[in-house]
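Project channel, design review

CF: Before we commit to the Lentzea cavernae constructs, I'd like one complete example in the thread so the newer folks can see what an input/output pair looks like. Taking Peptidase S8/S53 domain-containing protein.
RD: sounds good, go ahead.
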Amino acid sequence: MLRTILSVAAVFSLVSGVPAVAAPAEGAYLLQFRTTLSDSQRDQLERLGVRLGAFVQDGTYVARMTSTARVSKLGYVREVKPFRAEPRIMALGGSSGYLITLVEQDERDQKTVADKVKSLGGTVNEISASREHIMATLDAGQAAQLAKLPAVIAIDPVSAPETDMAISRESSGANYVESVGGYKGQGVRGEVMDGGLRTTHQEFRARPPLMHTGNSSSTSHGTSTYGQIFASGVSSAHRGLLPEAQGIFAIYGSGDRYAHTKQLVDPAGQYRAVFQSNSWGDSLTTSYNSISQQMDRIVFDHDLLICQSQSNAGTRSSRPQAWAKNVLSVGGHYHYNTLDRADDKWNGGASIGPAADGRIKPEISNYYDRIDTTTSTNDTAYTTSFGGTSGATPITCGNAGLMFQMWADGVFDGGPGKGRDVFASRPHAATAKALLINTANQHAFTGTTHDQTRTHQGWGTASVRNLYDRAKAGGWKLPVLVNETDLLATGQSRKYTVASNGQTPLRATLAYTDPAGSPTAAKATVNDLTLKVTAPNGTVYWGNNGLLAGNWSTSGGVANTVDTVENVLVQTPAAGNWTVEVIATSVNVDGHVETSATDADYALVVS
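CF: and here is what came back for Peptidase S8/S53 domain-containing protein:
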């Protein structure tokens, strides 16, 4: 018997007598608004069938809808025009790996795009738990076809991962905080992600590394970076920053990084990490691309402090991971094996900023040369010549581990002795970043062409001694310490009063974890929070004004609109009450998902 199979549309036509019409296809559009969207406007758009996806810039989102007729007539809509992703094609002569970024986090879209990859003859290598990314092997034609899908916002090529201490403990104050408070990393857990690890080295036997992935036979680089943080001190000259902490190790390129990071911060899991150190990355670029966006998504969703090496090109060519807004990007300077900071130089070594959109990168820096650490030749082998930003990054992350321990112990919360669980009591990632930046030691410089100018050294070198001493001087508190507890919607602001005695510098640092940006945008920042500091006489200092050309802020200027870290640093503040204000200029994407409103949280540190 011949059986006829009808589509749903055809069946509907036969039953109703109404000619079947195919449902209109959903398209992708750039939807620009005249002002920052209110929640009521978002609700109206949703009722009209609009799916708002990634924020691009200047009030513009990538949106998906079946019809633009009614939407284009809304008074708060400026413009609607079709959108198509523009893939960065690298596989002109064959197939290579690509990271496909979707317009929004959606498992159905992931499946649709993954199925399309397969139908085109490409290979799906990984479907990320982020619901926003797919790793695939494609040729140029396949990448171009995928870019036509409404669910796709960017397609970027990926590469094989590339890799980029005798007095480092003394210079950062690690020895000092150990002597005054006994801080050696007890209770701290952190991960080093690198190429491989000699797990049997004598420096790791006291607390064997907790392996998060399998290992690799290429162990030289990873053994050195891991030892900078976790070497126990069998050889005192090579003792790590956290000799009594529990180290975790993972090899790079070992699966979905989003899911991997989620495991690190699972409170019921075995890792319970408070930081991750990375002295490697994808091929150098000057762009905020899909890999940068992926890192911002990871930090935004999982709230982990991730330290990332800037690389060693001596130019603005850097790891795409380092261009992410939410990681702590680490540069380097030659220290010539002396504690004297006056002879330190960038000297054309480390990769530098600014980012393509003008953001200040790196955010912090450390030793680039002659670092004493473990090596993998045998179980008792060491080197005195490790370096690059590969060496600067673990030093920075190790100091972050000491900061986490001090936080849990109550150094910033009324006094040491609380002895809380380090993971359970940890500050948010943005707060950890703000604390390290606010108390960093700057290299003196003047001008944007100076060897140690801002975009070479970042905000300086991490100092746990400064952290400890400034908290102690304030009765184990800082004048202002906001750990993402205060919320702002567009147009709102929050003010804090700080009393200055006129004797010590005033330092205010705002940092916020921003929603992932669009790889297609000219500016990576999504939300715009602004720092404003007002002196007792009414003089105004805007965040980062004057700080590209010198160590101290200059008054006046305008609000910063590109950076997610803003500082006001006043060398000789007038005595009296100063006002520190955080202003939500625009909240385009919900930055605090715990509430139903479209709002944003932030970290604020004043010392």
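RD: helpful, thanks. The chain has 13 helices and 27 strands.
CF: The CA atoms of residues 164 and 390 lie 5 Å apart.
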